[in-house]
């Protein structure tokens, strides 16, 4: 299974133009004429994610990744989990963790374009990347990631804070979760609320861990469910650990984590 195949032809919109209302098609064509689509990874014209950027992704092999924190090459000795702190918290909270690729070119630009530059057309393609990652892991590493997708009772996404929602105008992981659930056939459960404010991207490991504590609340019934928790980027693991711990506190029997990228 080729994980890059899910993004071939990413310049196309997720739904055929002829299915769109006439007025919307005209508006999109006019917008395209004024501001042509460019690759979110390298600014090449004509496609949302170009072939060169797809090829440049540093994919994480699920046969050798760390099942506790998703880091590459962590099957024997994980350099991330050996750091005292958050990764060990992930191991306690998450049953398994899986990530598609290392957070390196072109993913930082693509994710930033999606989250901060309002390129919402990327959502279905990022969803498909997550979906292909889970399917691929089940096939090539069934002893490690068997049932990570097919065995899930529901998909839960790590939500944005109210402040981030107001700033962006949408919840970036909810927008990915919905097409992901359509692809997988696993129901979506909007189970978490996230409190707090501020961007965590500039915080260190200890600051992230402290801020994540008590940040989440479960607002749906998750008792007895096996959940697949999705997020965009795992940095120290504080977010995944805190969200998973809260879901288990509310009665979830198992929580697996799935992310687009892993900082390493």
Automatic annotation (TrEMBL):
Protein name: ComF family protein
Family as reported in the entry's similarity comment: Belongs to the ComF/GntX family.
Matches recorded under InterPro entries: ComF/GntX_DNA_util-trans, DZR_2, PRTase-like, PRTase_dom
UniProt organism field: Collinsella aerofaciens (strain ATCC 25986 / DSM 3979 / JCM 10188 / KCTC 3647 / NCTC 11838 / VPI 1003)
Superkingdom per UniProt: Bacteria
Sequence ranges assigned to domain Double zinc ribbon in this UniProt record: 31-81
SUPFAM superfamilies in alphabetical order: PRTase-like
Domain Phosphoribosyltransferase: 185-255
